[in-house]
Design brief:
The structure is a homotetramer. Chain A has helices at about 15-30, 40-50, 65-80, 105-130, 155-175, 205-215; strands at about 10, 30-35, 55-60, 85-90, 135-140, 180-185, 220-225, 225. With about 230 residues, chain A is α/β, with parallel strands linked by helices. In chain A, helix 1 (about 15-30) runs parallel beside helix 2 (about 40-50). Strand 8 of chain A pairs antiparallel with strand 7 of chain D, so a sheet runs across the interface.
């Protein structure tokens, strides 16, 4: 097993319950956390849980809509914790619609948050990782990337695009000691059981999976769905 | 063979040589042409060739960056020619780069022109086609959709997204008599031969293919690459 | 357009209505036909239609279960017609079942006829085509290759395998002037309309498509589904 | 974590080092092992290692070329250990070649061992698992299933076919409480480092991954590559 203690991770989509679960699990292994998202109150809630177990965490409440912002976050994480080892790109929300009646505003929100933001964050982190010849980028997307489901709209397109982005990053950077992981889980919900008493896929299942991949030896990487 | 005479087609990416070739071939079959693109002079050049063979054509020189603009174009085509039968989405240009040094401006230009513009145009045309229970949407993208090639950057992502968009349109609208075609050709160039004397893939080869698909019986549809 | 006149084609799956339609269409363009299949009477029926329009045709009624047999067929076609230009691999029949109750005999029949037979036929034709630095291999499989449908059983597996076989042939032989086409049509039936009066996909639609691809310039190749 | 203690697993491809590693890891968790393969001496060696740590194991040295044989193995595992919980299908060996010169004997050996044998084993196990509404089938194939590599020949085709087989099993049996896992690792070798001192992918890495998936909660399943 590969120890994570003392490493530094930036997480996007930080306002989601999933990001909270992944950040908490990583902090439990001694990872310094930089949590980025839109909603300051939710970021603070996750940060407080991490502090309660003695973890180190900073938060960044903002849209990641310019390279200046994502580069600033990389800089802040590095000055706060002395490095950057892991970037975790978490899809912040689902929204979609049928194409013939799709709201353009929804298209723009979904594409910006789920595809352009991961690009800008990777764009800022990669030069650092290439220079240090070490680093790890994980995207936690959705099984909407694995097929085509009516009404998924912009979200389906963003998730297929995210897959392509991660494959490009892998192809262009594996020679620089940078590994990637692409997770495409089904829909995760907090409740451990559904109305019929069947077990759900929860954020904890996904963070368990992410943690397992991140603790594998450096030369191994994994992609794939986890589905319920 | 399915006659195209008297039908009306809107083409995006109209400033490209490929769009000019497809429009000319369709006009030769009696299709009324609405050619949309960024560069008025290139649109006029293609329109003049069509007029010389007695074809009917209108041009729209503008970016297709709002639903209002694409709905206006659908309206203009319908009032000029009395209907809308065919929408052809042509990727206007390639640009990319390595992800770690990708220009953000390039990302935005490529994603807007090659993915958001086709979405907005389809978004405007589909309600009309669904109401008339008839219509045809063809996208002519690129073999960048068929793999992951380093340095393709935003273009690769836009082309994979275009594939997903077309699959969503197919899945959501086939019950409404709307058929789709997705063409993913290699790079087409004007010169019939390359420096070594080998034959190239030319815009005429692609327009020949598009025309063949559009003249198949209404209940057939085709996807696929054509490669050199 | 690329003239087919005087070329020689071997077709497998020759007892099917589809093979009959493709052979007839090719013969109409002046192609010499070698039709291979299991049922002598059906082969003769197709051959007689070809002879009525003045076409040249030989038939081979046998299972193609050894390399000796497929090499003999290549030899016979070459001595009868003076060459070998085109090999068309047509899936002879569908059979399947749920995996948990799949008949082993069905598995063996399906895998042999739809996957091992095309391999043996390509295995025999490729050395000739590589030596003459020219040739064309087309497989007409099924849309069972494009997804995973319960109860398709061995047929689904054979069709996915056929896709891989054709991709290997393409990758290994394109430098030798050999081009491939992979067609994955939906189910074709003779009746032009179904019980509800809707048009069907017929063997003639598929042979029309095959003929179109085979008459493209030599440096172009096409894959893809045609679906109803 | 899901305890494996007291469960019973059948493994095919049992003569390989990978099967030995997976069987040893499972036995360490208290799983009863039925190890099937061609080479009795290698099976015995793996069985002895398991017995040394107090594990329970039986071996079956035979080709799995009839349903009678695979049903007999299911019967023996159930009578020896009182049940059947897990089936692990391990690809026994690589062999291939260019299609134009591929040995037919190699084709038959590869297709039988890597595709027909997994089918026959799953065919025998599924009726039991469907009746008990519980069970788990894992296939450990190869990254040859994830692309098309010249010279992979029959192995590439068998691995793509194995993927389809596993997807059919998943689609047809998930309602019966049966989950599947498909692992497509790169080439594993025993030596922890290669000639240049870089770490290899070893059988232990793969068995670690298999064990992790098998110990997830019953309602989760995972597919995917692990690559070096």
């Amino acid at each position: 097993m590969n120890s994570l203690s003392g490493k530094t991770a930036i997480l996007t989509g930080g306002s989601t319950e999933l990001a909270g679960a992944v950040a908490f699990a990583l902090a439990g292994e001694g990872v310094n956390i930089c949590l980025c998202g839109r909603q300051a109150d939710l970021l603070d809630m996750s940060a407080n849980k991490i502090k309660e177990i003695g973890g180190r965490v900073i938060t960044q409440a903002s849209e990641l809509d310019t390279l200046e912002k994502t580069e600033a976050i990389v800089g802040q994480a590095r000055s706060a914790f002395g490095g950057l080892d892991i970037l975790i790109l978490i899809s912040p929300f689902w929204s979609g619609g049928m194409i013939h009646s799709h709201h353009v505003k929804t298209w723009d929100l979904v594409m910006n948050a789920n595809l352009r933001e991961p690009f800008l964050m990777a764009r800022a982190a990669l030069p650092v990782m290439r220079e240090q010849k070490r680093g790890e980028i994980m995207a936690i997307g959705s099984d909407s990337a694995l097929g085509v489901y009516p009404q998924d709209g912009a979200f389906a397109i963003a998730m297929h695009g995210l897959t392509t982005l991660m494959e490009l990053i892998q192809a262009e950077n594996s020679e620089f000691g940078i590994r990637t992981h692409l997770l495409s889980p089904g829909v995760a919900v907090s409740a451990p059981f559904n109305a019929e008493g069947k077990p759900n896929l929860t954020p904890d299942h996904i963070s368990d999976w992410a943690l397992w991949l991140l603790t594998r030896p450096d030369h191994l990487r994994g992609n794939g769905p986890i589905l319920i």
